[in-house]
Design goal:
Blueprint: H1 2-5, H2 10-16, E1 23-27, H3 33-46, E2 55-59, H4 62-75, E3 84-87, H5 88-98, E4 110-112, H6 114-127, H7 137-149, H8 162-181, E5 183-185, H9 186-199, H10 201-210, E6 213-216, H11 224-233, E7 264-269, H12 285-292, E8 297-301, H13 309-319, E9 340-347, H14 348-364, E10 372-376, H15 382-392, E11 396-398, H16 408-421, H17 426-432, H18 442-455, H19 459-463, H20 470-482, H21 488-498, H22 501-506, H23 512-532, E12 534-535, E13 541-542, H24 545-555, E14 568-572, H25 573-576, E15 581-586, H26 605-617, E16 620-634, E17 637-640, H27 645-649, E18 655-657, E19 708-711, E20 715-723, E21 730-734, E22 740-744, H28 745-748, E23 751-752
Parallel strand pairs: 1-7, 1-8, 2-3, 2-6, 4-5, 6-7, 9-16, 9-18, 10-14, 10-15, 11-14, 15-16
Antiparallel strand pairs: 12-13, 16-17, 19-20, 19-23, 20-21, 21-22
Helix pairs in contact: 2-3, 3-4, 5-9, 6-7, 6-8, 7-9, 9-11, 13-26, 14-15, 16-17, 16-20, 16-23, 16-24, 21-23
């Protein structure tokens, strides 16, 4: 026991050894929350309060779930394979597999990832002759997912106008198509699981009595339906509140005392790091949990084991400006560390060049580039940064690029495997019916779809009756027969060979990388068998194809190539959540960019932006750089931005300005123009009188940003940007009706107007 609890600080120890009751743990960034969660599970098991099968632990990533299982295995001499520890989607998939009949699903139902769902919606719109410009497939997918995450089936969605009524009708048709094909999307996994527990009392009571302790990681990121799912499993309320019908609210009334029978909920989260409202995350779930379950004990993990003191003091100073926080203050015993370095650039190009030079300097001082991260608020910012890095020959990697299971060749192979498991999967059929090419054109496919729709059967079944696609349907049958009795890796290898995929990519000029990815798919199948397979009488492990396909869908997007290279990491702040680096650059700290201009139009949008900044700052372990530019090209336009309000929220004593500080009223803004972004005192108003204090280099002849100039051909304009020096000096001039033009000063013969 002493080994299990050794090294925990007092708040961590209090959380781990909390008596059997509901508990809320506010875990600040870098405060050891994963250790607390895992040790809590181990302590409950070791003290005999619950067996491994009585634990339900929910995480938000498969990586976090695997880390938790690995730590438990190291802590206790138990077999963790059968434990219910995983993501919401993974656990719901497991539940639905076990009760597929009660859930109204086929035994081998398949999971649609985001790309598959989009393809299914496009197919639906085409089949119904719906204009996809009026009803864009991606927008419709977001609408459907949003309704499902709110717990609303089509009949429960309120539609006050014709456009919404049409979207609801398409939602209903989409549901029918998915049910017919035996497929579910990610949002459906959770909603179908919730409905299963809600409507089938024996099943609900079974799991309520089984799981005595429910532990939730990253609780601040849960959405409305996820919180309802947790409450249902915990036995609150009892009986469960039905999902709302059209015109009804979603308020749930207390119908039993939270101290009565039911599981003990142990929720760990940080309301200051709730940054996924755009995905439906509801930070208010934390307060609702505290109130509805009458949580007596709120434990705060405030000691940070990641960052130096100055970085934490800056983060605390920023986030304290948010209202309605549950409240905590990060601290460390690692010392104050270095001041936060601040750079004010003339434009975004100069900002990027400065970052390149700082990265080079840090690298020469011995810091690995993989331990440096460049964060930005908007993806649109990355172009100029990537260009500067490329020009300087610095290796970099855009974190969040194309994932393994999303690559074209892998998705093709998975489509063949899906058809072996379920020949009625029309989405998989359409993906590979003519890949590699078999002479089955769009017209033949349309005719096949019309015939299938009329007969109300799948495309594969229709293809068996004849026509060009009959050869493909026969191939699927041969693949299925050829894979009988094979192990999972052998099945994948056989499909790659007999489908023609290997031969196709061998004949491609750039096919080697794709072939390597297909080889990796075989490795993925072997790893799946080793980690998730079941042993036969002789002890040999084997894996189920349907389970592997579910695994592939759930894992999509979580693994990435090139991580071993010593390269600077580029990413949006949202992508940086959960990561940490020795040195962090936060670029583009300007009003309208960070915080984003859309935040003022959204309820509590500015507070979400502040939480995003808090997350960005707390990614840094040793050194933090923050920068902004007076002018920036975004979406083809030059923007004149004031420094972000976040600069003013950080105590001056924590900052080290690498350039003379230009005040919020000293930005380089041409006369007569208005701000593209909001001011502190008001949004969208005209620019105040400002002093244009930064001039171009001496070689430009004294021209400055914001100066009115004249050109013999284009007329009068105003200088909005500049690059280079001497004979290479260029200025960007806005000539009004003539447009914005870059001019070489050595040739243009500009004159002051």
């Amino acid at each position: 026991m002493s080994n299990l609890l050794g090294g925990l600080n007092p708040p961590q120890l209090a959380a781990v050894t909390l008596p059997p009751q509901h508990g809320l743990v506010l875990a600040g960034a870098g405060s050891g929350k994963t250790r607390v969660l895992t040790t809590r599970i181990a302590w409950l098991i070791q003290t005999g309060q619950v067996g491994p099968q009585g634990i339900l632990a929910v995480t938000f990533t498969n990586k976090a779930a695997k880390e938790m299982l690995a730590r438990l295995t190291a802590m206790l001499p138990i077999n963790t394979r059968g434990m219910w520890i995983g993501t919401f989607h993974g656990l719901c998939n497991r539940l639905l597999r076990a009760h597929h009949r009660d859930a109204g699903l086929p035994q081998l139902f398949q999971i649609l990832d985001s790309a598959d769902q989009l393809a299914a919606i496009k197919r639906l719109l085409k089949g119904l002759n719906v204009d996809d410009e009026k009803f864009p497939p991606r927008d419709l997918a977001n609408f459907i997912n949003g309704q499902k995450e709110a717990g609303l089936r089509p009949d429960a969605v309120e539609a006050w106008d014709e456009y919404t009524r049409k979207r609801v009708e398409l939602y209903r048709e989409y549901e029918a198509q998915c049910q017919r094909e035996g497929v579910v999307d990610f949002a459906e996994l959770l909603l179908r699981s919730y409905e299963l527990l809600q409507r089938h009392e024996p099943i609900r009571h079974h799991y309520q009595s089984r799981f005595r302790h429910i532990l939730v990681d990253e609780f601040q990121d849960t959405n409305v339906l996820q919180y309802r799912w947790l409450k249902l499993l915990a036995g609150y309320p009892s009986p469960p509140t039905p999902l709302p019908h059209a015109g009804e609210g979603s308020v749930e009334s207390r119908s039993r005392d939270s101290n009565g029978t039911g599981a003990h909920l142990f929720c760990v989260g940080d309301d200051d790091q709730s940054i996924y409202a755009f995905r439906g995350a509801e930070v208010g779930n934390m307060r609702d949990f505290e109130r509805e379950f009458r949580v007596d004990t709120v434990i705060r993990l405030e000691q940070n084991y990641r960052s130096h003191g100055n970085i934490l003091d800056a983060a605390n100073a920023i986030i304290k400006n948010n209202a309605a926080r549950l409240g905590k203050n990060l601290w460390t015993d690692a010392g104050t560390g270095e001041p936060i370095r601040v750079y004010e650039a003339f434009n975004d190009t100069e900002e990027a060049r400065w970052i390149v030079e700082e990265v080079k300097s840090l690298s020469l001082d011995g810091m690995a580039r993989r331990e440096m991260a460049l964060l930005y608020r908007s993806n649109a910012q990355s172009r100029v940064l990537e260009h500067a890095l490329f020009s300087a020959g610095l290796p970099y990697r855009v974190y969040g690029g194309l994932r393994f299971f999303e690559r074209q060749e892998v998705k093709h192979a998975l489509a063949y495997l899906r058809l072996i498991a379920n020949p009625d999967d029309d989405g998989a059929f359409l993906r590979v019916v003519n890949f590699p090419a078999r002479g089955i054109g769009a017209r033949s496919i349309e005719q096949l779809q019309d015939a299938a729709k009329a007969a109300k059967v799948s495309l594969c079944e229709t293809a068996r009756s004849g026509g060009k696609a009959a050869v493909f349907a026969e191939l699927i049958g041969k693949l299925k027969a050829a894979c009988e009795g094979l192990t999972l890796p052998e099945t994948v290898e056989q499909v790659l060979a007999l489908s023609g995929l290997r031969t196709h990519y061998q004949n491609e000029k750039e096919g080697q990388d794709r072939l390597a990815n297909l080889d990796e798919l075989v490795n993925a199948a072997a790893n799946f068998v080793a980690e998730e397979g079941t042993a036969d009488a002789e002890g040999e492990l084997s894996g189920d194809l349907a389970a592997f396909l579910s695994h592939a869908s759930l894992e999509a997007g979580e693994h990435q190539a090139g991580e071993g290279d010593d390269a600077l990491q580029l990413m949006t702040v949202h992508s940086a959540k959960g990561l940490e680096f020795d040195a962090v650059f936060i670029s583009g700290l300007e009003e309208g960019l960070f915080p984003h201009e859309n935040s003022v139009r959204e309820d509590k949008g500015l507070e979400e932006e502040r939480r995003l900044m808090y997350v960005a700052v707390t990614r840094a372990r040793k050194r933090l750089y923050i920068s902004h530019a007076q002018t920036r090209m975004l979406h083809g336009q030059t923007r004149y931005n004031l420094p972000s309000r976040f600069f003013d929220e950080i105590p001056e004593a924590l900052l080290k300005w690498l350039t003379p500080r230009m005040g919020r009223t000293q930005a380089a803004v041409p006369q007569g123009l208005t701000f593209a972004t909001p001011r502190r005192g008001g949004w969208g108003g005209p620019a105040p009188d400002v002093a244009v204090s930064r001039t171009l280099a001496k070689e430009t002849g004294g021209f400055r940003i914001g100066q009115n100039v004249a050109h013999a051909k284009f007329g009068q304009g105003v200088i909005v940007n500049a690059e280079g020096a001497g004979s290479d000096a260029r200025v960007q001039v806005n000539f009004g009706r003539e447009g914005v033009k870059w001019l070489a000063l050595s040739v243009a013969k500009l004159t002051a107007a």
